[in-house]
Amino acid sequence: MKILSAEQLSEADKISIEKQGITSEKLMERAATLVFNEIHKRLQGAPIPVKIFCGIGNNGGDGLVVARHLIQHGYHVTVYVVNYSDKRSDDFLSNYERLKEVTNDWPKLIKKENDFPDIDTGDFLIDAIFGIGLNRPIEGWVAKLVKHMNDSQAFTLSVDMPSGLFSDKVPGEKAAIIEADYTLSFQAPKLVFFLPETMDYVGDLQIIDIGLDREFLAGLSTKTYLINKDSVLPLYKQRKKNSHKGDYGHVLIAGGSYGKMGSVLLTATAALRTGSGLCSLYIPKCGYEIIQTGLPEAMVLTDPENDMVSDYPEDFDADVVCFGMGAGTDKKSVQALKKLLETSDSPVVIDADGLNILSANMELLGLLPENSVLTPHPGELKRLIGEWKDDFHKLEMVKAFSKKHKVVVVIKGAHTFTINREEIFINNSGNPGMATAGSGDVLSGVITSLIGQSYEPVVAAVLGVFLHGLSGDISSRELGYEGVMAGDIAANIGRAVKDLFSREMKDQEN
Ligand SMILES: NC(=O)C1=CN([C@@H]2O[C@H](COP(=O)(O)OP(=O)(O)OC[C@H]3O[C@@H](n4cnc5c(N)ncnc54)[C@H](O)[C@@H]3O)[C@@H](O)[C@H]2O)[C@@H](O)CC1
Ligand SMILES: Nc1ncnc2c1ncn2[C@@H]1O[C@H](COP(=O)(O)OP(=O)(O)O)[C@@H](O)[C@H]1O
Ligand SMILES: [K+]
Asked: Which parts of the sequence bind K(+) (predicted)?
């Protein structure tokens, strides 16, 4: 699914109005009626106080349309106009007039702090103050109103965007922003909804298709995508009936150290669960029995060292190598990674201590085979590329890094971002149950396995991250967030693949 900028969305508005021969007021009516429908579906006529805060632009206009429909359906509605200026938009004004059709209660104007209404925790708030038109931070009494709404702890639904969020930049640290419980956003997701610094304001997100011109939307170019089931289904390669283990890749996983053999065990398990034909591990001697007992399906080669890897078997014929989990950063392990990079010309996957070794020995970056995949969490990323000012700056820095070193970078997090040169793929599967030791090791195994099965590295990363998250979702459904362990995520990868094809789940998602 494409992620669009505010400019692209405004342009899509204009074109759709022209091509569909409708007025902007009609488009507002259509969009806001869909918002009303969603609210009505959930509230089912409940007699709770609904307080709608409308700005004076088109986001406020949406709020007025929603208000009209709610009043018509018998809800207990109070409409507030957040009167921060006198420049009301045309469609706001016409919908302000149209409220007369359904009520004699004129909206209450808020012009200063004294006008703020009391808000009870049990109220249902609709935030239609600002949408994609916000062009500077909210200030003065409007900022205090935002705080008043947030402090109330009342359930808050934002129309299009939580007011105070910009679609294309991170607000300042002390900015006033509505903390929505639910956001109903028009037509396309916005990048800020997924960034670590701003995603908490959004609450649960639902994108509403307001029927903008399909042809125009299809032609819009973007380099940023939200990845859901529909995006990954076409990437998946069906197995051939007439095939054998040699067709599904031989992966080699190198790493582990004394006390940290579980990490490579998890990676190798995940690789086999993702369908690798053959899986070998290159580990220190101390791990031999652990792996042979823990994963009889895997083959094991040992390093001359007992406690860490210090070397690399250069004549070993693997389709893809993954290096780093549990490896430590000893000088000897630096040599091991160096030798791997010097001998390999096909893409490798580097995770965990492999990344820490790269950060401390930047000259090794030049040895990375083209299209290698690096899978840092934010801490590892900082060591690798340095500090960023905010999440947008981080994305620019990672794009530059990806271009310079010709690698794919997977920034792990609640929404994992896969960055390939200019392109950004934002993952939309997964849950907080996956915040548990070793789940990153599992992800490396999944991605490595897919590369071994001949997926392009960037495709392996995007599909692998999605499957890993989906497997986490299946695991949490069964075990609860707290109960999920990394091994469960590895164990459920096959179910995640099956789940990709289940229609029922797909329908629930949208
Ligand atoms: N296709 C779509 O996306 C549609 C969008 N519509 C709505 O239109 C909204 C955009 O409307 P507008 O462009 O009128 O903008 P907003 O309603 O988001 O903002 C209102 C105006 O306030 C001013 N402003 C910005 N920041 C301010 C600040 N900090 N303090 C005071 N004033 C400030 C700006 O001049 C802006 O035009 C969308 O978010 C959506 O809710 C719908 O009505 C119809 C379809
Ligand atoms: N709140 C969350 N929601 C979704 N996915 C998460 C969440 N927290 C962690 N994850 C996923 O779990 C994995 C954690 O990886 P990492 O930080 O490397 O952990 P470890 O080093 O213990 O393996 C990543 O793939 C990340 O995207
Ligand atoms: K809003």
From this structure: 59, 127, 163
- Kindly give the distance from the C-alpha atom of residue 82 to the centroid of ligand 1, in angstroms, as a whole number: 13
Q: What is the DSSP string of 195-232?
A: STTTGGGT-EEEEE-----HHHHHH---SEEEE-HHHH
pTM: 0.94
Spell out the alpha helix ranges (H) of 274-390. Answer: 288-294, 331-343, 352-360, 378-385
Residue 173 identity: E
Whole-angstrom Cα distance, residue 486 to residue 494? 15
Give me the residue spans of the domains in the chain: 6-217, 232-509
| Architecture of the CATH domain 6-217 | 3-Layer(aba) Sandwich (3.40)
Q: Give the other-Cβ count within 10 Å of 192's Cβ.
A: 23
Instruction: Quick: pLDDT tens for 248-263.
Output: 999 999 999 999 999 9
**Is 473 in a helix, a strand, or coil?**
helix
**Ligand 2: centre distance to CA 3 (Å):** 23
Q: Is 50 exceeded by the pLDDT of residue 19?
A: yes
The rounded distance, in Å, linking the Cα atoms of 159 and 161 is 6
Phi, psi of 272 (to 5 degrees): -65, -40
**Would the CB of 437 count as within 6 Å of ligand 2?**
yes
Answer yes or no: is the C-beta of 430 below 6 A from any ligand 2 atom.
yes
Q: Which residues pair with 107 in a beta bridge?
A: none
Q: How many CA atoms lie within 13 A of 303 on its CB side?
A: 26
pLDDT of 123-151, one tens digit each? 999 999 999 999 999 999 999 999 999 99
